[in-house]
Each structure stands twice: as structure tokens, then as C-alpha cells.
Amino acid sequence: MMDQAQSLRQLVSSQDSKRMNDGEATARIITVCSGKGGVGKSNFTLNFSLALKAMGKRVLLFDADIGMANIDVLMGVTAKYNLYHLLKREAEIEQIIQLGPGSLPFIAGGSGMDELFSLSDADLNYFTTQIEQIADQMDFILFDTGAGLSKETMKFITSADDCLVVTTPEPTAITDAYALMKVVHKSHPEVSFKLIVNQAGDEKEAISTSDRIRLAADRFLQLDLPFLGYISADTHVVQAVKKQIPFSMAFPNSTAAKDIQRLALSYLAGSPEETKKLQGIKGFISKWLKRTK
Fold this sequence. Notes:
The chain has one domain: Rossmann fold. It starts with a helix and ends with a helix. It has helices at residues 4-22, 41-54, 71-75, 83-87, 93-96, 112-115, 121-135, 151-159, 171-187, 203-221, 235-243, 247-250, 255-268, 272-276, 280-292, and strands at 28-34, 59-64, 97-99, 105-107, 140-145, 162-167, 193-200, 227-232. It is globular and about 50 Å long. The chain has 15 helices and 8 strands. 53% of the residues lie in helices and 15% in strands. The longest helix has 19 residues, at 4-22. The chain is of the alpha/beta class. This is Cobyrinic acid a,c-diamide synthase. Keywords: ATP-binding, Nucleotide-binding. It holds the Pfam family ParA. GO terms for molecular function: ATP binding; ATP hydrolysis activity.
């Protein structure tokens, strides 16, 4: 009997073939956010990116957390360059893209993120040109944003193809995740959200948590909120963070590692209708620049 993961792999494979036949090579832009800190958003983004890459996808991870950029810390990698060096024209895009564990390409955030929202037209054009050079080589570009809903995070969320909202079963995390989506949806109803429950005690708790948010979103916002999946509470995750190694690599047979693989498969198995709506990096930057001005 075919299991869920095998079914998802076959669906993903068939959709990849369709995209190739259609001549489509547009990167999907994904923003990952959370209503509050401490829900494991950055850890999720890192391991989700690695899972996509392990499935043969070309992935670029962009640490877009303004004040608390820490993707490189989770990787145990010292970033030689970050966004600041690009904005100051001290390095080009190929130089600031570094390789983390599993040869995952990433751009470190840091101090440069603040300056990204106050650039001159000339500097914005330079940034856009640089990003476009590398975007055509990617299938997915993931932006790990700061916790909560700052004006900077809002710009990333409303410019991307998808927004993955990470929460935990804790009441405050649930409330804050819903509040974030409520604010965004009221001003930008076109934003596509998908929900992830992290640190779930079991499947029952994960489904219960997602149902609470999804029912509220449907009733009060008329928002259809897909539940992408969950990651189990797993002591291996904490151990991996201490080791500064992604948990999916440090403990590949752990429950959390298997969960993140299933999540990635579920995401890749998204409907062909969604795929056709991709705007690509040019559309993302166009929207982003309008919201930055």
C-alpha cells in the first residue's frame, strides 16, 4: 500500500515534469513569519530550506530578520559577507551568497537590513539588478523575517508569492499568529498564507491548534487558511541548536526531521493552479519597491 510520503513524491514529480514542459523556470518567493518570537521560525526556515534542497530544488535562503538575524548561528557558520557589503557595493551578489551545511546557499542579514529600507533610487536599482542576476538560477527564495509584524516584515509578506506562518500550540503564539494574519489580510487580502504548527505534542494537538486558527480566520476574515503540517516537539531539536547543526542533518532519523521532510513534500505538492500565479523575483521586487517608497 502506498504511504503518504510516496504519494506526495509522485505528485511532486509529475508537477515538476509539467513545469518543465511548460517552459516555466520562475522562482517561487516565500516569506516565513510568526506572530511572536520563540516559536522556532528561523529553525524551521533553515531545515525546510534544506529539505527542499535535498529534494533536488535550487534554494536560496535570505536572512531578512532586521534586528535578530541568526541563520548563520544556527548553521554554525561565520558569515564573511552579509547584505551590508552588497548595499555598500563592497561585494557583489555572488560574493555575499555563502554555502551553509548541505551546500545550502544563503545570504546573511545583519546591519545591512536596516539600510535596505532607506536606499536611494540608484542604490535600489543596483540591489534589484544584483538580486535578479542570481534569482533566475533558483527554484525557491526564502526570506526568514523578524518575529511579529514590523513595517519591514509587512513589506516582505505582501510582496511574496507565499507566506508561511509558524506558530506553536501555546495560546499567546496562536493569538499573535492570528493577529498578524488579520492585520495583513485587511489591507492585502491577496496574500497567500499557509499555516505550520511547530513543537506539537502530537498530531492531535497540531490539528487542534490549526483548527482554532483556521476556523477563526474563516469566520471573521473569510480567509481560507491551508494547514501545511506540523513539527513534533522533539528534544533532538534543542540538541541540534546547541551543536549549531540543523536538526535535519544532525539527527536525520528524528521525528522532527521526518516531519520537516513531510512538510516540504506537502508544499511541493501544491496545486498547479497556484504554480501558474507565480510572479517571480521581478514581480516580488516591483511590489517590494513600491511598498518601500
